[in-house]
Design goal:
alpha/beta, Udp-n-acetylmuramoylalanyl-d-glutamate--2,6- Diaminopimelate Ligase, Chain: A, domain 1, UDP N-Acetylglucosamine Acyltransferase, domain 1, twelve-stranded mixed β-sheet, 4 helices, 40 strands
Length: about 325
């Protein structure tokens, strides 16, 4: 990123107070400001740093009135905090500028069909009969198995592995190292104490506007599909087992694990390290606290659950008070 104060003001529909040619190449907290940095001031408790910051440009609210001399160029906007969010999105969008590129060292099967302005990085493999939608960005060392269908405007970061036959919607982001479509943990016990592998012939279906974090694995179904609904957000290092269904707009923080054939409703929130038992249903709008264990079905919508096994929040707090009282005795 390299912008002048004037360009920044144009992007954010603000005004410049100071040198319009002041250049910014990075971001910094106002207390850590340095030459070439952009900082913002929105919280009154940080006002002291406005006068001492070494940042080249400060983003401030329109109604800010300095009480001392300010060394940095000011860019005034309606709301500095929202302005930063808008600028971060602008910079991110610029980095994702779509252009058709097929790097040396990539392999795209002759029968694969790529849409308009798809970018393919070095070392990436795209198998037979794959279909990639328009404006996709596929980074380095990605593997996309035979027959996989990927929608428009998707971003697939380095090291992602997508097994054959997967279906991925539009505007999906797959972060580095995630695996889509590996076999589920299906093994049948044998009379002699050994285990026989159960083959998995299904796939994974991911909806639109989904983001999957780094190192997360989503297993293919034994039969039919493992389904990730529209608008779902799954953090890093999560495990989604075979035949799981996750409803639209559900979010899941890092290190959550969902056992096979669990059905999770819409608009649920799971904090970090939640474990979910297999073959159960969880109602819409359920919120689950960190490290909770869901050991049975959740039938009532809108509950907040914590603990292991998880129980309603207020019941847990009353029970915990009893535990503390018993411990003190």
């Amino acid at each position: 990123m390299e912008l002048t104060a004037k360009q920044l003001a144009d992007i954010l529909h603000g005004t410049v107070e100071g040198n319009p040619e002041a250049r910014i190449t990075t971001f910094a907290k106002i207390e850590h400001g340095k030459k070439g940095a952009l900082s913002f001031y929105a919280n009154p408790k940080y006002e002291q740093y406005v006068y001492t910051s070494k940042s080249s440009v400060l983003l401030v609210n329109n109604d800010f009135v300095p009480r001392e001399a300010v060394g940095a160029t000011l860019v005034r906007v309606e709301n500095a905090y929202n302005g930063v969010a808008e600028l971060l999105k602008y910079v991110s969008d610029q980095r994702k500028k779509y252009k058709r590129r097929r790097a040396w060292g990539s392999h795209v099967a002759c029968s694969a069909k790529l849409g308009k302005k798809v970018s393919v990085g070095t070392g990436t493999f795209i198998g037979k009969h794959c279909r990639i939608g328009d404006y996709g960005i596929i980074h380095e060392n990605v593997t996309i198995g035979e027959g996989t269908v990927i929608g428009h405007h998707c971003i697939i970061y380095p090291g992602v592995v997508i097994y054959p036959g997967m279906k991925i919607g539009d505007n999906v982001i797959l972060h580095a190292g995630c695996v889509i479509g590996s076999d589920g943990f299906g093994n049948a016990p044998q009379p002699d104490g050994s285990w026989k592998k159960i083959e998995h012939l299904g796939n994974v279906v991911i909806g639109n506007d989904v983001e999957i974090g780094s190192g997360t694995t989503i297993d293919r179904a034994e039969m039919e599909s493992t389904v990730i609904g529209n608008g779902v957000r799954i953090d890093n290092l999560c495990q989604i087992a075979h035949n799981v269904v996750i409803g639209d707009n559900t979010v899941m923080a890092a290190q959550c694990g969902v056992a096979g054939s669990a059905i999770i409703g819409k608009n649920c929130i799971f904090a970090g390290q939640v474990g979910i038992m297999g073959h159960i249903k969880i109602a819409d709008n359920t919120t689950v606290g960190a490290q909770a264990g869901i050991a049975g079905p959740v039938r009532k919508s809108g509950q907040i659950l914590i603990g292991s096994p998880a129980i309603p929040h207020m019941l847990y707090m009353r029970s915990y008070a009893k535990f503390k009282q018993a411990g003190a005795e």
